[in-house]
Amino acid sequence: MSSKKTACILCSRNCGLDVEIENGKFVKIKGDENHPISKGYICQKAARLDYYQNHDDRLRYPLKKQTDGKFKRILWDEALDEIAEKLLTLKKQHGGKAFAFVGGGGQGNHWGGVYSRQLPYAMGSKFVYTALAQEKTGDFWVNGRLFGSQACHMTEDVENSDYVLFIGTNPYQAHGIVNARNTLRELQKDEERTMVVIDPRVSETAKLANIHLKLKPGTDAFLLSAMISLILQEGMHDREFLSQHCNGFEKVESEFLEIDVERFVKKADVSLEVVKQVARDFAKAKRGCVRVDLGTQQTLHTTLNAYLEKLLYLLTGNFGRKGVNNLHSYLLPLLANSDERKDCVRTAKHKMFPIAGIYPPNILPDEIMHEGDDRTRAVFVDSANPVLTYANSKAYEEAFNKLELLVVVDVAMTETARMADYILPAASQFEKPEATGFTLEFPENYFHFRHALFEPLGETLPEPEIYTRLLEKMDVIPKKFPILEKIASFEPKLSARLGYLTALQTLFSRKPNLQKFASSIMYRTLGKTLPKGLESAAPLLGLATFYANKYFKAVKRAGHQGSKRTLGNTLFEAILSAKSGVIICNHEYQEVWSLIKNKDKRINLTIPEMFDELSELSKEDLSNDEYSFILMAGERRSYNANQIYRNPEWRRIDPQGTMRMHPKDAEELDLTNGSEVICESKVGSLNAFVEIDESVRHKVVTLPNGYGMKFKDNKPIGPQLNLLTASDNCDAFTKTPFHKYVPVNIRKV
Ligand SMILES: Nc1nc2c(c(=O)[nH]1)N[C@H]1C(S)=C(S)[C@@H](COP(=O)(O)OP(=O)(O)OC[C@H]3O[C@@H](n4cnc5c(=O)[nH]c(N)nc54)[C@H](O)[C@@H]3O)O[C@H]1N2
Ligand SMILES: Nc1nc2c(c(=O)[nH]1)N[C@H]1C(S)=C(S)[C@@H](COP(=O)(O)OP(=O)(O)OC[C@H]3O[C@@H](n4cnc5c(=O)[nH]c(N)nc54)[C@H](O)[C@@H]3O)O[C@H]1N2
Ligand code: SF4
Ligand SMILES: [Mo]
C-alpha cells in the first residue's frame, strides 16, 4: 500500500486528496491538508472515486465500428492512420469548416485540452463546442463589454465577505466556492455577517441563510433590475468608486430609474419590503459579494442576468478589495477573447459567433443537419457525453447518425461513444499527469499538477500521446526536431531550458505555422528531459514563463526566486515538484485594475444590447397556458456528479433520481411518494418517480443532473433529462439553454 497526493475530479473545486492505493485500486481517500486552497476539505462524493477508476464500462482498446454496427478491437496505428486519412480528405474536399471539436476537458482534466486544441487548428477549423457555452458564455460576453476581454474572469471572496448574495446557486450541494460547507457554516454562525439566497427552492443553502427570496423561476431579471433601481433611487450607489473607476454611469442611472419597481418585484412574487431591505443592506455593507451559477445562467434572460448581477456589485463599489468580487490571473487560461463585433467566423446555419472562443452546443445538431455544402460533417468528441448532457438528446442522436465521421476519446463506453465510428480509449485521470484550469482565486492563486497514481489500463493512452501521434500522422508536425532535442538535453538544466525557449522562438519565427502545435513539439523534445512519467508537462515551461513575465512581482511575492529571465523556470520546477499544488502568485488588491483590458483601465458600464433587453422586460408575459409546470432540469444533489461516475452503485441514496414535487401538486394529481409519472415537454417525454417535497414551489418540479446512463448497455438509470430540453429553448443572444425553465405537463402513469 502506498500513500499519494492527487485531486478530486468531480467538480470545479478539485479539492486536494491524500490517497492510499493498492493493486490499481483506491483503498483510502481523505482530504489533503497540504493542498494550498482546500486544506484537507472534501465532501461526501470524493471518497467513492474508485467507482470512476474501476468499473465495467472502462475502455481498454481502440475500437472501430463495423458495417453491422458492432465494434471491433483494432491497433492504435490502424485507428490513427485511418482517422488521419479521413480528416485530411475531409479538409481537402470541404475545408476546415466541415470539422467540429466537442469538449476537451471535464471537471478536473484540462491538461489534455492543451494538446487536443491543436486538432481544430490542424483542421483549419474554429468550431470548438464545449459545455461552458451551455452555461457561462452570457457571463463571459458581459465581461468582454465591461472589462475589455471575455477572458477577464470574476471570482468571489465569499469567505471574507460580510454580506453575500447567492443568486441561483446552491453551494451546499454544488460547491463552486472555497470549501463550501465550511464557508457556509461560518457565514451562518457569525451574527455580523449576512447570507441572502435568491432561489425558487428552499435549497440546502437557503436553509442556512438569513434571508431567502423564494422567487418565481425565470424572474431574476425583474428582481435584480428592481434592486438596482432601488439602490439608485435611494442614492445608495458608490459615487466615488463610479467616478474614479467607471465610464457610462449616467446612462445606466437613467435607464434603471425608469423601472416600475413594484411591478417588477410582483412579477418575481417576493415581498417588496424584504427586497428593499436586501438592496439597502447590500449597498451599505462593507464587503458585499455576489455569487451566481446555473439558476441565473440556465434560465430566461441569461445574458441580461449576468449584466444585472455584475451591476449590483459594481454600482455599490464592491470590486477590487478583500471580501468582494475581483478579477484574477490564471496560469492555464480556459478562455479566449472573441469579440463578435470584430472578425469572427460564424456558423453555417445559425450564423452564430463564438464567445470566449467557443460555440454553443444548442446549435450543433442544426449545423450538422443543415443541407448546405458548408455543413458540419465530422466531429471529434473528447471528455464529454453530449448525447446525454447537451440540450435535446433526440436531435443529437439524429445529427450524429448523419455524420461522415464521429470519433470519441473517453475513458468509458458512454452513450456518445456507442455512436462513434472510432473510439479512442484514454488513460484515466489517475493514470496520467493532469491539471485543472479551474484555479480562479485572487489575490493568491495556485496551480496543481497532479502526477499519475496508476499504470494506464490495457492499451489506453494519455491525450498528449493520442493527439501528438495523430498530428504526426496527419503530417502537421515533423516526427523529429533534432536541434531542439539536443539543446534541451544540455547541462546545466537552467541554461538548457533558456536556450531551448530561445530556439523554439527562432523556429516559430521561421515557421509560424508550427506555433499552434507548440504543445506537441515541446512534449516530443523537452519532454524527453523531464522526469519519467512527466513528459507531457513540457508545455508548462512555456505557460510558467509567460505567467512569470506577465505577473513578475506577484509571483515573487508568492516566494518564488529568480530574475526576469529565470523566474519562469523556478515556477515550472516548483509546480512539477509540489505534489499537493503550489501558490503561484500573491497579488496586491490594486493590481486588479491592471487585469482590466480596457485601455483606460476603467470599467465600461454601458452595454446598449442590454438596455434593449431591459426595455423588452416590461412587455414580457410569463403566462403559459399549454404547460402547467416549470421543470428545473438538472438539480445538483448529494449523489450526482455530471457523467463522471457511471456505475449506479456509487449512490448511497436517490437511486432513481426522483422528481421533487410540492405536496399540493401531488395531491391535485393524486400522487404519493414513489408514484410514477410521465413528464412531457414540447420535444419529448420521460418517466420519473415522485418525491413529495415542501422545498419546491407550487407548480415547479425538479429532476437531478447526472443520471440516465446506460451502464453496461442496460436500461438507462434515472431521468435522461435532455430528452425534454428543446434546442431553441435558449437565450436568443448566447444560445445557452434554459434548463432551469422547461415548460412541461405531468400525469400519473
Ligand atoms: N453534487 C453535484 N455537484 C456539482 C455537479 C453535480 O452534478 N453534482 N455539477 C457541477 C457543475 S458542472 C456545475 S455547472 C455546478 C452548478 O451548480 P449550481 O448552479 O449551484 O447548482 P444547480 O442545482 O444546478 O442550480 C442552482 C440553484 O438554482 C436554482 N434555480 C433554478 N431556477 C432558478 C431561477 O430561475 N432563479 C434563481 N435565482 N434560481 C434558480 C435551483 O433551485 C438551485 O438551487 O455544480 C457543480 N457541482
Ligand atoms: N438538462 C440539463 N443538462 C445539463 C445540465 C443541467 O443542469 N441540466 N448541466 C450541464 C452542465 S453545467 C455541464 S458542465 C454538462 C456536463 O456534461 P459533459 O460536458 O458531457 O461532461 P461530463 O458529464 O463531466 O462528462 C465527462 C466525460 O468525460 C469522460 N472522462 C472522464 N475522465 C476522462 C479523461 O481523463 N479523458 C477523457 N478523454 N475523458 C474522460 C467521462 O467518462 C464522461 O464521459 O452537463 C450539462 N447538461
Ligand atoms: S466533489 Fe468538489 S467539493 Fe466535493 S471533494 Fe470533489 S472537488 Fe471537493
Ligand atoms: Mo457545469
Structure description:
The structure is a single chain. With 749 residues, the protein is α/β, with parallel strands linked by helices. It has four domains: 2-53, Phosphorylase Kinase, domain 1 (2-Layer Sandwich); 63-133 and 335-587, Rossmann fold (3-Layer(aba) Sandwich); 154-327 and 602-614, 3-Layer(aba) Sandwich (Dimethylsulfoxide Reductase, domain 2); 623-748, Barwin-like endoglucanases (Beta Barrel), CATH 2.40.40.20. Helix content is 32%, strand content 17%. It has a seven-stranded mixed beta sheet with strand order 5-4-17-16-15-6-7. Strands 24-26-25-28-23-27 form a six-stranded mixed beta sheet. A four-stranded parallel beta sheet has the order 11-10-9-13. The N and C termini lie far apart (52 Å). The model has no long low-confidence stretch (mean pLDDT 97). The site of molybdenum atom has 2 residues, from loops.
Extended strand count? 28
First-last Cα distance = 52 Å
Treating each run of at least 4 consecutive H or I residues as one helix, how many helices?
27
- Gyration radius (Cα, Å) is 25 Å
Tell me the overall shape.
globular
Second rung of CATH, namely the architecture of the largest domain: 3-Layer(aba) Sandwich
Give the ligands present.
ligand MGD, iron/sulfur cluster, molybdenum atom
Total domain units:
4
What percentage of the residues does DSSP assign to strands (E)? 15-25%
**Multimeric state:** single chain
CATH topology of the largest domain: Rossmann fold
Q: For the residues shown, what is the average pLDDT? A: 97
What's the gist of this structure?
The chain has 749 residues and is α/β, with parallel strands linked by helices. It is globular. One ligand MGD binds at residues 103, 106-107, 109, 112, 131, 135, 294, 382-386, 389, 409-412, 414, 426, 428-429, 633-634, 642-644, 705, 721-722, 725, 739.
